Amino acid sequence: MIQLFSRYISVGVINTGLHWVCFGALVHFLGATQAVSNVVAFCVAVTFSFFANAKWTFKSQATPWRYSAFVLFMGAIAAITGHIADLLRAPPFITLILFSGFSLIIGFVYSKFIVFRDAK
Questions:
Q1: Could you list the pLDDT tens digit for every one of the 120 residues in the chain?
Q2: Measured CA distances, 120 to 59, 100, 117 (Å)
Q3: Tally of CB atoms within 10 A around 119
Q4: Are 116 and 54 in contact (CB under 8 A)?
Q5: Which of 74, 53, 72, 54 is CA-nearest to residue 62?
Q6: Which SS3 state, helix, strand or coil, does residue 73 take?
Q7: Rounded to an integer, what distance in angstroms lies between the CA atom of residue 107 and that of residue 70?
Q8: Domain-wise residue ranges, the chain
Q9: In sequence order, what are the residues at sequence separation of 6 or more whose Cβ sits closer than 8 angstroms to the Cβ of residue 90?
Q10: CA separation (Å) from 101 to 28, 63, 87, 117, 118?
Q11: Number of Cβ within a 10 Å radius of residue 72
Q12: Where are the alpha helices (DSSP H) in the chain?
């Protein structure tokens, strides 16, 4: 389980970089809200994350059902995080840190026990 989580973290580092760059560009250059920015950035990063984790971390087939299940669940987490941040007028950097940490843990648990539960 530790090796599996280590691989998930490795993919997560790249995923987080993609997310942060997209989020920052949307908030600072396009003036988008944190909720919108977080969801769009998530969609970009999650696509990479899903396929990398399916192949490298879980050694499982990437199917449309798995992709949809992962994106919908994690997208809801991204939207809720961004919405709460907007309500609290939290600084974008805090939003990124909190979402990155929370999504790493909940994403691994959800992937291991729901999306890729039958993986070897």
A1: 889 999 999 999 999 899 889 999 999 999 999 888 877 888 899 999 999 999 999 999 999 999 999 999 988 888 888 899 989 999 988 888 888 888 889 999 999 999 999 876
A2: 7, 27, 9
A3: 16
A4: yes
A5: 54
A6: helix
A7: 8
A8: 2-115
A9: 34, 84
A10: 22, 26, 20, 22, 26
A11: 9
A12: 2-30, 34-52, 64-88, 92-110
Lookup: tokens for 63:
């199917």
Q: How many residues are given for the chain?
A: 120
Structure tokens at 8: 């998930």
d(CA 90, CA 36): 15
Q: Report the distance separating Cα 96 and Cα 34, nearest Å.
A: 10
DSSP 8-state code for residue 62 = -
Instruction: Tell me which amino acid residue 28 is.
Output: H
Largest interatomic CA distance in the chain: 44
Please report, for residues 3, 69, 72, 76, 81, the alpha-carbon distance to residue 65 in angstroms, rounded to integers and kept in the order given.
26, 6, 11, 17, 24
